Amino acid sequence: MGIKDFFSSEGRQRRRVESLTGKLCDRYGPSEERWSAADQLAEIATDDAVYGMIRRFLAVSDKIAEDREEKRHVQDLLVQLGAKAMPSIRSFIRREADAVLAVECLRRMQSGDALVHELIAILHDVGPHAARPDQITPVLAAMAEIKDTSGLEAALPYLEAYDDAIRLAAIDYLAKLGDQRAKEPFLSIANNEDTSPRIKERILQALDIHGWLPKNPEKKKKK
Q1: In a domain, 166, yes or no
Q2: The model's pTM
Q3: Do 119 and 169 belong to one domain?
């Protein structure tokens, strides 16, 4: 940053946003200071300020009830910002390891087809091998609650994710849909000797519920 940038209005605002973000995410600071920082960042409402607000979701205060209230306050502020907050929320979910609370915000701000399209876009953009558990499992869980089949193709690759928690979330979503397109991938995983026991168990449960398990061939009686 050059000397002119340092003293410019943009430079001053950038430093203010950084300072407020630091206060908001300081788990050892006073609660009232974190609340005030969140309110001030919401007033600034630039992309950097909003992203700073969302970073509060990654900080954990020692006082559980207080921590929960503060994060709920940040969620409420983000929802009130509406469209202004959406770019930063999208970016956060795609970049950070724990997107649970950000996905909750997304679900409060979008509904119907708009929400489905957002969730599917995240699944496509992140990818099964880049995904981390708390980044993508809330997205798959949201799709499971909606039970919209348009996300099936985007979810299928997550059956091959490295992390079992992600694979289980994908299985649960696809099992709730009961769409025949999931049958062959399920059978393939069930028949793979490298499949872990808990993954295989969940797959077999899904196959059984939908009647997709192959029937045991009856021994032909000799004439």
Answers
A1: yes
A2: 0.87
A3: yes
